[in-house]
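Fig. S4 source data, part A: sequence.
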Amino acid sequence: MKLLFLGDVMGRAGRQAVAEHLPRLRAEWDLDFVVVNGENATSGMGLSGAHAKALLEAGADCITLGDHAFDQKDMLQFIEQEPRIVRPLNFSKAAPGKGARVFNARGGKRVLVTQALGQVFMKRPFDDPFSALETVFRAHPLGGQVDAVMVDFHCEATSEKMAMGHWCDGRASLMVGTHTHVPTADAMILGKGCGYLSDAGMCGDYNSVIGMQRDEPLRRFITGMPKERFAPALGPATVSGVYVETGPDGRAVRIEMVRQGGVLAQSGPQ
């Protein structure tokens, strides 16, 4: 299978970049399934129902969220109506929606998409992501009930992401990190066939401070004093993510970092 994962969509610029590039990428790369992390797509804080619809219409088969999952209050109801949105598995047990779902892909293939939140350096404590994912993996073995497994691990620490990658090895087709908005250069296939990338980066304007207009973050770093609210940067956006091809057993056989548009060097499968 040919799988694409796009990192955190950041504000209007990120949404526009996904709408511009994703339809072309689906056709040119003959993609079977696409996951987009949309947790910052609405003003940099959460995802609204309207913007979720726009990402799905652009070509996403599934949208994952993150620690800002319900910053836009209409998502509390919208996620119950739209099964193509996956919230963090180890979020509050009272949260609406699901943290893992199986989707039908092209050619009758079945893809499990799940997301977990990390614990290291996060602003609030979340349940253990490893034990939460263990339950999902046991119910949906790779190469058995599902043809591919895509894991979005939303956290700060690269060490925690790497540990999760090795723990998923042999049970997932792809374990990709999100949350930091900074793309890493360590795409690889682990020993038992799990594609791995520490962070997919963001779909947003990189002439910024992790997607935010520069003045206010700089002011706070230099003076320690806030003056205004953060606002997403609106310049030309780069679509960032990772492309994975899997074999008949669901294990990764090829992985490529993806950069399209904006200011970063262009990359992707050739």
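Fig. S4 source data, part B ends here. The chain has a mean pLDDT of 94.
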